[in-house]
Fold these 4 entries.
Entry 1:
Amino acid sequence: MEPGGPVEFERVVPASGNLQVAGKQFWLGPARSGLTVTFWADTSVIHLLIAGARIKTVRSHLSVADLGRLAARGGREAGPVPLPAGDGAAFEVDRVVNNSGLVGLGGHQVLAAAEILGGRQVGIRIDGETLSFFDPSSRELLRVRPNPLTGEEVRRLRGLRPAGPPPRPGIEPVRVQRRVSAVGTVLVCRQTVSLGRPSAGQTVTVHVSDTTISVELDGQIRVIRRTTDAPVRNVKANKPHGAPYVV
């Protein structure tokens, strides 16, 4: 058995209905007293099943050492994640985006949101044909991608859990900076915005929303209708920098 790998084990629900595993309590209610609960656990998630049916899923508090102790006390190497896949249900996992803007998911390298999210942890909602990348704390939608995973690949994902509420796009515009070119233009989301040659060389602040591009220049704000749906990739005038992402 691989250290830190998922473990399965059983516990009987006491009369109180409150099970305890490795210092954490699992409330199942007195009505389930006497029933045998199967735990499927790794360091990311814990699934509780009764008679093969999943009744509860929670985030794991277990360490690799905890899993080792549970295995030594009657546990066994766990089988596949006990979640159905391919029946319209939505699931979620957490992953960290690498410096190339990619996340590893079921053997696939999926582009999360270019380099702008490099090093950042994101939530990924797996929903039929799509992957929705979102901020785990606010559930703000960051990017939607096609889902390359099969149902079996989804079922085997590390840390898989039932999905929460669908993430929603942020309503605040993204604030970026751009340096005005020699011909008086800036490029934002692949859209060229003309500010005039007298502005050449200046660094301006730009607010990007889904429908408009607003430029702060000489104490005034110039609002331009947005004509592209390309995402914000660079926040600073000279190089990428972490910030929210426009879908």
Entry 2:
Amino acid sequence: MPLTAALHDRARLVVGTVASIDARGQVVHLTAGESISYGYLVYAVGSTSRLDHVDGAREHAFTVSEYESALALRQRLTTVTAGAPVVVVGGGLTGIETAAELAELRPKLSVTLVSSGQVAEGLNEKARARILRALASHSVEVIEGSRVTRINERKVELADGRMLAAECAVVAMASAVPPLALKSGLPADADGRLLVDDTLTCPNSPNIVGAGDAVAIDGMPLRMSCQAAIPLGAHAADTILRRIEGKPPKAVNPKFISQCISLGRRAAVVQRTDSKDNPRSTVVSGRTGALIKEQICTSALKWGVNPRRPVMYTWS
């Protein structure tokens, strides 16, 4: 979906990079020199893959967390030959999905998934077992309990001294947030996330409301997901509208439902969770899981931009 299609007709789109936020003067300064004044500001700068904790990752690895890097990865894959080794670093949900997609898309590649701990360690054992079976069915080699220490042009080095051949390396380990809050003198946690209260309001600057990966609600960040992004965005808007109307804003009440992992185009694992995102016993997998995952992705676009969204997208 083009960004313009997701915006209201009365919204003005400015494409640029924010250099700093002047909370006292209520002005956003762009790197190109333009300044934009605001009555209220929604801080929703998101997150990206972290590359600074593995030597050589920034120079020699790809990520799928940003559009430009994903396109660069796609282009790189057109140049590797059949049987070429591809290493995916990170056993979380993004790493699992990436390894499965690559193996299904290019079945003649030799895909290895490396995880410093267990693969999908946040899920229950039933879900983990089904994920590992699916990866095996795609001939993905899984290495657990091994930390990657260095990536160069043709190899990935593990902490135990092993060297893995890698014509292409993809990092899907940890996320990082832009340092904009810190640079702007706004309250932030040690990782740079904007600190907000349970109404998503920045305590020192009540005209700034935060949403998404780059905020910590009462000191706690939430898992990167559309499941959090959509209701947080809606709640940020509700907080601003209630302030304009002279009403007290409501506290946000996170209500997670599930964790969904694609395993190629024809299979997925859907792990039911409680409202705090802890795994429950219910797991749906295979083609049924893929259908559920695809419907979730479709509805995220359909309802995420619709003011009359269903209750599942409301966290108040």
Entry 3:
Amino acid sequence: MLSILADRIYRHLFLAQVVALLGTGLATVALGLLAYDLAGGDAGLVLGMIFTIKMVAYVGIAPIAGAFADRYPRRALLVTLDLVRAGVALVLPFVTEVWQVYVLIFLLQSASAAFTPTFQATIPDVLPEEDRYTRALSLSRLAYDLENIVSPVLAGLLLAVLSYNALFLGTVVGFLASAVLVVSVLLPSPTPSEPRGIYDRSTRGIRIYLATPRLRGLLALNLAAAAGGAMVLVNTVVLVRGELGLPESSLAWTMSAFGGGSVLAALALPKLLDRVPDRPVMLAGATTLTSALLLLAVFILKFGLSSPLLLAAWLVAGAGYSAVLTPSGRLLKRSAHPEDRPAIFAAQFALSHACWLITYPLAGVLMPMAGASFALLGLALLSALGIAAAVRLWPAHDPEVISHRHDDLPADHPHLVEHGGGRVHAHAAVIDALHRKWPG
């Protein structure tokens, strides 16, 4: 897996991702504690609103940003967005009202909504080979997972000697370091797409996404992952500080258990995906995540909540979560032409976060309304519905090359000539101007 770091461009991009993630992880812990300070027992509601605002920015901004990502130099765009994020993070320690947090989070996440899909769409151009790209995806997932461990641990150490406001300064450093690393390399120029209107450009990625069966299944699995992830991100602070009465540093250690499970899965996935198709791996991951929520609810009802029980549940949930999300880039890469990748990665970013837009408020409301067990059961049910939808929407037989017929093209059309001159031919199937519906 680490051999791909020999590529200088990818190495710098990966390190940029790592330092930005560390900064974001510190901010996540700090936001939880800030919410608890500002709202006390209603911290779950505040965090639910913060994450809802984040999702609104992601869903609204990402498709527009993806539509215009190929119009600007990638390096300049990524660096500018990193600087915007650093500036917003610098202001967060000085807020005194909840509404101020909401405004700043919207600005911060709007910049992230433009940054992340552009960054993700760059990696297939840097590493076009399937096996190297697969390892890059696992390494990227590992970076996310290690952040879930390292950031809480680092936050716990810093909180022993500093207030949580100092964690926001770590976020600023992370974004600035990311900008320096991005500016240090020359990135591949985006492939220019055909001239299109604003509406067509903004919706193209979503139209390709929703017309592709495997990506419709991915969307359903995104819902399953979001249900479990929302329970962890929104309510862990309430479980640790409110239900268990543990100190601030315990929140960091509990969050690191979720990251630990993700690390274990990410380390195993590259070799597993060499032998097993994406679909069964992702379905198994979603089932594992759902089972962790259900079992934790049952154990709480029977024995009550304890710190070891919560740590074990989050460890298992983290492994399932990683198994769902890690292979998603492979599905996106094989489901679009290179010139459509920024749009389809932006569509994945927007649609997956639309799922979080449902689950974050739900997690924030269920916990104070009915308690931990009811919240766990409700989100587990939503996750199970996502799994059932994925099984139905994503056929078990999902070949890359599909034979199909063109009755809508003249006999001398370049596409027919390119594939042997007949109206019936086979090639890798993607949705584009000549294939507006999935063949077969």
Entry 4:
Amino acid sequence: MEEILIISNYYPPEKGAAANRIEQLALKLNENGYKVNVVCPLGNYPEGRLFDEYKGKFSVTEIRENITVKRLWVYPSVSKNLLIRLLSVASFIMSLFFYLLFRKTPKKVIVQSPPLLLSFVSVWILSLKNKKIILNVSDLWPLAAIELKAIKEQSISHRFSLFFERIIYKKATLILGQSNEIIEHIKSKFPNKDCYLYRNFPEHNVSKLALITEKQPTIKIFYAGLLGIAQGVLELCHQINLDGLPIELHIYGDGSEKIQIEQLIHNGNKSKIHFHGMLNRSELHQRISTHDIAIVPLKTRIYGSVPSKIFEYGCLGFPILYFGGGEGETIVNETQLGWVASVGHYEDLNAKLELISRLSKSELMVMKTTIFNSCQVAFDLDKQIKYLIDEQVF
């Protein structure tokens, strides 16, 4: 059995799209005959504190569904203080540095990027050890950081990030990109680099539509995921206008905007918005099975970014209200998954909500069935993995 290592900053029982994405890759490679090992930090995300089972541990080795997971020490934090956040990132990088330097590693290694500094250290050491480096690029940093105004263009941090980005692309044996825009960006810097499209398709093992369309007239729209700067859910809550519409917004998740969202709802300004906190994936799927539409927002158009929620909820049968711009718009439109509102234009979003409010529950049920059936073909994870294996990517 051929062995492969995955290096990631997130892995279950941590929650969120990034952890789920890496787990699905690991499980699919294992199903296709690979012995898969994962190296990641001790579980702490998104709370920013070690989970109870990892407290007081320096490292932990565990088996999760035939995947060997090596968890290394990290100083966890979700502090808004930049120095504390850097200390947190540096702590895991230090653990990983010594692990990769002194431990025997397989010939093939998948490195998740971002985080950029983490992938830079991983790629640098692995290149010294002559490993086959498969760089999995989910977002373009530092470009995304500039668009989100997280760093200033031509600042010292921006210039360092550009250096790290160029090195990881150059040193990687080949690159997986989650969008065509990511591949175009990399090809603009290294035209001869082998790049492959790897969409973040989910694996649900669902053979029939499991959604329940309630008879009551209220249409339940939901957001589930990270409550951070990039998603802009707090601003969405401020700007969305549900007055006079038979629509509710239900929010599931955790992140830096959580407290402000809870305060907004508690103050009574948004009676049609309901916050439910973070749930594990199976519990979340059960809870949202009676909801009607998934909203997928981004604060601004981020070049290269395609939210995995499009594939996640499309495959469950949910119509999508997309509010993020970029390549995601093309996917929603071409696969007829629902509605697109121009990113950042809340008048357009509220106009789309007005259209949605006129739908009957029977019309929504037809949409769910059609979307579920089409997504089983359009977003086929097994077919995608088989293609990459046939191309000798892994």
